[in-house]
Amino acid sequence: MFILTLRSCLTQGRVQALRFIQSGGGRQNSLQWKHTLQKRWKSTTVSEMASPSGAAARSVPNATANKAMGRWMLLCSGMVGCAVLLGGITRLTESGLSMVSWHIIKEMKPPSNQEEWEAEFNKYQQFPEFKILNRDMTLNEFKFIWFMEYSHRMWGRAVGLAYILPAIYFWRKGWFNRTMKGRVLFLCSFVCFQGLLGWYMVKSGLEEKPDSYDVPRVSQYRLAAHLGSALVLYCASFWTGLSLLFPRQKLLETRQLLKLRTFTHGAAGLVFLTALSGAFVAGLDAGLVYNSFPKMANRWIPDDLLAFSPAIRNVFENPTTVQFNHRILGISSVAAITGLYFYSRRIPLPRRARLAVNSLLAVAYLQVTLGISTLLLFVPTSLAATHQSGSLALLTAAIWLMNELRRMPK
Ligand code: HEM
């Protein structure tokens, strides 16, 4: 493909050069030549670089190509969202450590007879989760947790294909401009990285820890990295999809609008940080250490907030501090979004942007309510999973608003 592309570029260059020579050269012509080059450089048609199907690609109107690519990106972000939800349920049903090896192709075929199932169960029995937590587990119970993990892994592969296959197709058609090429390469590499990170996380839960009789669980650092990178993938794909499908709106560039834009970026960043801190809560089962709200066991600031030494360890390893921080971040997010909402009311906004602000506020309150209920009810699976999806909904609303407030290119 590279050779074909190069050949096509050279051919086009030769045609231009010939025209230049035929017209006699000279200063005026050299200016024309420069102008032609500049125009070509600036143009951001879908077919930026010629390809074997270059002529066909150029005949596709920009709008049609953008629509197709925008829908593809939204589909990908939706699939990543489902993967996050499935991953959350897998963790909450304690199914995440049931498949004890990883192979990109071989593991796609599940055990098909009693013998194969028993062999799989035997492998699981060699690992700490069975030895410490599930000694009396039956084969049928094992099948349930195994299928939970299997569906998460298979869905992950489907997400990978949903990024990579259409990317190859659109690339060959020459529909990507330079920016899209960079983004698509980033997203496709990131989705592969996400899969590897998933296995790196699972491995931490399979390690034998001779002195520990604690419930085996994956490292909270790796869980946060896995969830965090899924959220990055989700946000980047969603942003790209929206940008391709909806043109920028003409907004009056006032100081107030500038502030609102900065405010929105800050709120989105805070929501992202809160979601990451939620992963630490989940990873340490810190939702079970204090189950009262707003106080933590009749105290505003619990005694054991700085129990670990050195102090910095408390932020990531002390369940009390991790829960405390998550509460503070969650409340701060909703306070920031409330402030943003009232500030936005002073500014005349287009209908879609107004709808995005309203949705952001509504989802923020819903999410905090879900978080508090999850805590008060001792983390029931269904509620905790809904709270996790709530963080995706909140990020969705924040990204949507950021996209609506996009600046017009100069
Ligand atoms: C902007 C607000 C919030 C966001 C974006 C958010 C996000 C998250 C996320 C992403 C998780 C990880 C879920 C998982 O991986 O399974 C989580 C867990 C949790 N959050 Fe929040 N949260 C917010 C507010 C709150 C509040 C205010 C509370 C309670 C006071 C709370 C309580 C919890 C609890 C108890 C868990 C652990 C659930 C589990 O073990 O699965 N959250 N949160």
TrEMBL record:
Pathway membership, UniProt: Porphyrin-containing compound metabolism; heme A biosynthesis; heme A from heme O: step 1/1
InterPro entries found in the cross-reference section: COX15/CtaA_fam (IPR003780), HemeA_Synthase_type2 (IPR023754)
Membrane topology: Multi-pass membrane protein
Phylogenetic classification of the source organism: Eukaryota, Metazoa, Chordata, Craniata, Vertebrata
Keyword match Iron: yes
Reactions it catalyzes: Fe(II)-heme o + 2 A + H2O = Fe(II)-heme a + 2 AH2
Stretches that traverse the bilayer: 72-92, 154-172, 184-202, 222-246, 267-290, 324-343, 355-379, 385-402
Single GO biological process annotation from the record: heme A biosynthetic process
Metal-binding is among the record's keywords: yes
Protein name (database record): Uncharacterized protein
Listed GO CC annotations: mitochondrial inner membrane
Cofactor names: heme b
A GO molecular function held by the record: oxidoreductase activity, acting on NAD(P)H, heme protein as acceptor
Subcellular location: Membrane
Predominant cellular place of this UniProt entry's protein: membrane
UniProtKB keywords: Heme biosynthesis, Iron, Membrane, Metal-binding, Oxidoreductase, Transmembrane, Transmembrane helix
